[in-house]
Specification:
The complex is a heterodimer.
Chain A (H helix, E strand, L loop, with lengths): L1 H9 L10 E3 L6 H12 L5 E5 L8 E7 L2 E7 L5 E5 L14 E3 L4 E2 L6 E2 L5 E3 L25 E7 L2 E5 L7 H5 L1 H10 L4 E11 L3 H9 L4 H4 L1 H5 L8 E6 L6 E6 L9 H4 L27 E8 L3 E6 L2 E11 L2 E11 L4 H10 L10 H14 L7 E3 L17 H14 L2
Antiparallel strand pairs in A: 1-19, 2-11, 3-4, 3-6, 4-5, 5-10, 7-8, 8-9, 10-11, 12-18, 13-14, 14-15, 15-16, 16-17, 17-18
Chain B lengths: L3 H16 L10 E11 H6 L6 E3 L2 H14 L5 E7 L3 E5 L3 E14 L4 E14 L9 E8 L3 E3 L7
Parallel strand pairs in B: 1-7
Antiparallel strand pairs in B: 1-2, 3-5, 4-5, 5-6, 6-7
The chains are: A alpha+beta, B alpha+beta.
C-alpha cells in the first residue's frame, strides 16, 4: 500500500530536467488534465477560435471551445469580434446552442429568456419585477456579477484568437517573427471556406499536437509522402521553433536532385515503394502558388492551432481536448476568394490527402490511438525524444524532434513542471 | 420501363462490393468522368464543396483502392451497409436524380462494433441506354452528422 500512496504524491513530479524525456502519465492523469484547463487554455495563451470568414457580418456568431470552456465568438456592430463564455449568468445553461448563425443584437438564453448583448453583457431578465407586484428578482441581487467570462480577442490575417489571461502578450510577440512570417506567407488574401469536418481522435490532445510537430515521422509513416516526393527528409527544408518553444513551422523545399536519392532504400524503409503509381496523377498536379518552392508547410501555435499547406491543400485545425483519451479535431478547409475554377478543383482533389479519410492524415489519426493503447500500463515510464539533439532550437533538417521538445518546454513552463 | 428494381439492384451490389471486401469492383459502379464525394449535411447546406473523400474520375476511385491495399496503415475492419429504398426525385429522359438513405455499421478487428455513419446518397444515374446496366455519374454521400471517427478508411 505504501507504493500506491507514494505514487499518488510523486505522480506530478516531472522525471527529468531534460526535454528529451516525457512521462507517459501526462497523457493519462485526470488531475493533470484538469490543471491544463486552468494553466494552459485559460492561462497566458492565445486559443484559436474561428476564422474571420466564419463570421463576416454583424451579429454572425460561432460557438466553439477554449479547452473545455464553451465560448461564443461574435461580430459586433462596429466590426470588432467579441468572445465570451457560453454560460448564462442565471443557471449556467448554454446561451447559444447551435454551431453558429446570426442574432442581430441579442443572445437570449432559452431556459428563462435572460438576454445578452453582443459583448456578453447581461441586458435583460424576464419578469425581473415579477407579475402584478409579486415574485421577481430581489432588488439588491446583481446577477451580472455571475455573468459569462469575457475573453480578449485578436485577429491575425483572418484568424481569430482569444485569451482569458490579462498577461498574454500581443499575438505578434507571442508568436515571434519567424512563425508570424510563416503565417503571413500562407494567409495572403481574403479566405474562402470550402468545408468543415470534425474528427474524433481516440487519444490525449498532446499526442496529436506532438504528431503535428514531429517532422521525423512524416515520410516514414506515410507512403504517399515518400513515394511521390511530396516530402522526404532528404529534400530541403527545416524546422523553425519559436524562442519559447511553443510554436513551430516545418517546411519542405522542392529539389529536383532528390529524385536520385537512395537514402530511403538503403534504410529499407517501408514507405519507399517505387512500383506505386497513381491511375489519375491529377491528385499531385500542384502549382507553386506562394512563389517560393515550399511544397509543404505545417505550422502550430501553442496550445492547439495548426495551419497546414500541403501543396495547394490549405486548412486550419483546432485541437480540443474532450477527456484524457478523447480529442476533437476541427478542420476547416479553405481557399482564397479569388481562386480560379482550376485552383478550386485542384484544392478539392488534394484535400484527399487530409482529414479522417486522408491518404496521409488517416494514419496520423490512428497513431495517437496506438500510443494511447501502447502506454496503458506504462504511466511511470518515459518516452525518448532525442532525434536531433536535446535542445529546442530551429534546425535546417527535418530528421529531428526539436519542435516536439519545444512543445514540452512551453508546456512545462505553463504547468509549473 | 420501371427503373426502381434496377436501382435497388445497383445499390445492393454496390454495398456487397464494399462490405464483402471486393473493393476492386467499386470503381466500376461509376462512369468516367464521375463525381464521388463524402461530405456532411451541414456542408451541403452551406454550399461548401469539400469532401473528406473526393474523386472526379474513375482513376481517382481506383487510386483509393490501391492506396487502401498497398499504402495506408489502418486497423483491420469491416462495414455492413444497410441501404434503404431509392426515391426517384426527378427523371429528365436521359438521367435520374435519386436519393437513398443508408446506415453503416463498422466492426473493428477487436470486435468493437459502432453505428459508423448514417445519411443519404444523392445520385445522378444516366438511363439513356437500356442495354447498359446502371452506373453512377454522381454519388454524393451526405452524412447526417458533422463528426467522423478518426479513421474513415473504406468508402461509404
Amino acid at each position: 500500500m505504501d507504493t500506491i500512496a507514494e505514487c499518488a504524491t510523486t505522480r506530478r513530479c516531472w522525471p527529468s530536467d531534460s526535454l528529451t524525456r516525457v512521462p507517459y502519465w501526462v497523457y493519462q492523469d485526470e488531475a493533470n488534465f484538469e490543471d491544463e484547463q486552468q494553466r494552459i487554455f485559460e492561462g497566458p495563451a492565445w486559443n484559436f477560435v474561428c476564422l474571420e470568414a466564419d463570421i463576416p457580418n454583424r451579429g454572425d456568431y460561432r460557438t466553439t471551445h477554449v479547452g473545455a470552456m464553451p465560448v461564443i465568438v461574435v461580430r459586433d456592430a462596429d466590426g470588432t469580434i467579441n468572445a465570451f463564455e457560453n454560460r448564462c449568468a442565471h443557471r449556467g445553461a448554454l446561451i447559444a446552442f447551435d454551431d453558429g448563425g446570426n442574432v442581430q443584437n441579442t443572445f437570449r438564453c432559452v431556459y428563462h429568456a435572460w438576454s445578452y448583448d453582443l459583448a456578453g453583457n447581461l441586458k435583460g431578465i424576464a419578469f425581473e419585477h415579477g407579475i402584478h407586484g409579486a415574485g421577481g428578482m430581489q432588488r439588491d441581487i446583481r446577477p451580472e456579477g455571475h455573468g459569462p467570462r469575457k475573453l480578449r480577442t485578436t485577429t491575425l490575417y483572418g484568424l481569430v484568437f482569444a485569451t482569458l489571461s490579462a498577461e498574454t502578450p500581443p499575438i505578434e510577440e507571442y508568436l515571434g517573427a519567424d512563425v508570424l512570417g510563416r503565417i503571413r506567407r500562407v494567409l495572403k488574401g481574403p479566405l474562402r471556406i470550402m468545408g468543415r469536418f470534425t474528427q474524433s481522435l481516440p487519444n490525449n490532445w498532446k499526442l496529436y499536437v506532438e504528431n503535428v510537430k514531429d517532422t521525423y515521422h512524416a515520410s516514414l509513416l506515410h507512403l504517399f509522402f515518400g513515394t511521390f516526393r511530396i516530402t522526404r527528409l532528404t529534400q530541403g527544408g527545416g524546422v523553425l521553433v519559436s524562442s519559447d518553444g511553443g510554436h513551430h513551422a516545418s517546411y519542405t523545399i522542392d529539389r529536383a536532385d532528390d529524385r536520385q536519392s537512395t537514402a530511403y532504400r538503403e534504410q529499407q524503409i517501408r514507405s519507399e515503394r517505387s512500383d506505386y503509381r497513381l491511375a489519375d496523377p491529377g491528385l499531385l498536379d500542384a502549382v507553386d502558388e506562394f512563389g517560393d518552392d515550399i511544397r509543404l508547410q505545417i505550422l502550430s501555435v501553442f496550445p492547439g492551432f495548426i495551419l497546414q499547406q500541403i501543396q495547394n491543400c490549405l486548412a486550419v485545425r483546432q485541437v480540443l481536448p474532450r477527456g484524457i483519451d478523447r480529442t476533437d479535431l476541427h478542420w476547416t478547409y479553405f481557399g482564397f476568394a479569388d481562386d480560379t475554377p482550376e485552383m478550386n478543383r485542384r484544392r478539392l482533389r488534394q484535400q484527399n490527402l487530409v482529414g479522417p479519410a486522408g491518404y496521409v492524415s488517416m494514419e496520423d489519426g490512428c497513431v495517437g490511438g496506438f500510443v494511447q493503447r501502447g502506454i496503458a500500463a506504462a504511466g511511470e515510464q518515459v518516452s525518448v525524444v532525442e532525434m536531433g539533439g536535446e535542445g529546442a532550437d530551429s534546425q535546417a533538417t527535418r530528421a529531428t524532434e526539436t519542435s516536439v521538445r519545444g512543445f514540452w518546454k512551453a508546456y512545462r513552463r505553463c504547468m509549473g513542471y | 420501363m420501371d427503373l426502381l428494381p434496377h436501382l435497388v439492384d445497383l445499390n445492393a451490389d454496390y454495398a456487397r462490393a464494399i462490405d464483402n471486401d471486393e473493393l476492386e469492383r467499386w470503381p466500376d459502379f461509376f462512369l468516367d468522368p464521375c463525381l464521388y464525394k463524402v461530405t456532411t449535411a451541414d456542408n451541403l447546406a452551406h454550399g461548401y464543396e469539400s469532401g473528406i473523400i473526393y474523386a472526379d474520375s474513375r482513376g481517382m476511385l481506383q487510386d483509393r483502392v490501391t492506396a487502401l491495399r498497398q499504402a495506408n496503415i489502418y486497423d483491420r475492419q469491416r462495414y455492413r451497409h444497410i441501404v434503404g429504398l431509392p426515391s426517384i426525385l426527378a427523371r429528365n429522359g436521359t438521367e435520374l436524380r435519386v436519393e437513398t438513405p443508408f446506415l453503416v455499421v463498422r466492426t473493428m478487428r477487436t470486435g468493437v462494433m459502432d453505428l459508423f455513419a448514417t445519411g443519404r446518397y444523392l445520385d445522378v444515374v444516366p438511363c439513356d441506354d437500356e442495354r447498359q446496366s446502371l452506373r453512377f455519374r454522381e454519388r454524393l454521400v451526405v452524412c447526417d452528422g458533422a463528426r467522423f471517427d478518426t479513421l474513415v478508411a473504406l468508402p461509404l
